[in-house]
Amino acid sequence: xxxxxxxxxxxxxxxxxxxxxxxxxxxxxxxxxxxxxxxxxxxxxxxxxxxxxxxxxxxxxxxxxxxxxxxxxxxxxxxxxxxxxxxxxxxxxxxxxxxxxxxxxxxxxxxxxxxxxxxxxxxxxxxxxxxxxxxxxxxxxxxxxxxxxxxxxxxxxxxxxxxxxxxxxxxxxxxxxxxxxxxxxxxxxxxxxxxxxxxxxxxxxxxxxxxxxxxxxxxxxxxxxxxxxxxxxxxxxxxxxxxxxxxxxxxxxxxxxxxxxxxxxxxxxxx
Length: 271
Fold this sequence. Notes:
Structural class: alpha/beta
Order of helices and strands: EHEHEEEHHEEHEEHEHEHHEH
Number of helices: 10
Strand content: 15-25%
Number of strands: 12
Distance between the termini: 11 Å
Strand order of the largest sheet: 5-4-3-2-1-10-11-12
Helix content: 25-40%
Largest sheet: 8 strands, mixed
Oligomer: single chain
CATH class of the largest domain: Alpha Beta
């Protein structure tokens, strides 16, 4: 069956070192991302970014790539041909009390987590600023344990703390840190991928996804094949373990953008 859509993470996946579309994992100039986009264009394959970034950043990147759909703030929001859909659940729809991000902060949950995990969790500054639907942290914590702490809070019953992958941003005493999101309404990249597929009428076998984190891996539940970037596999022991739950995962030989290029070329060739 012909490929119709690629869902791809940005940081650590499509983008190379320092978030560049024209750099490989080592920072050397690379044409592979552009060649991948050209191949998708010629084959009529839609490219949909699924990112933890703020909407303005994801919109800008999508426009540069000539795409009209994107998923932002770790699946809290989705845009298809300029039509926006929030996936944060009815309780967290923005209202006169403020947006979800402001209301979560007002609940005191972030301060609770900082007190509970000193030196292990902090804001992912400066990228935590200006968020509307979710919150962004960095550090190294047990995600399941954090979710138990949040669930015990009076305002935490409809919130989810998720792991968006290892990042190159060390903290004192932590050699490898991860980016974490606190999202409302059970939002996830995977659920957003499923919503986009339904809206477009795509079949599972017509879609692939590429990513470097456990959160990206959630899209494997919806697409025909998930490609895990070699850099994510190398850096993240939890991700390596999580891959075993799926039978439609391929670990690429290439890292970051080279891996996405590999995923698209392999899929278009029917391999």
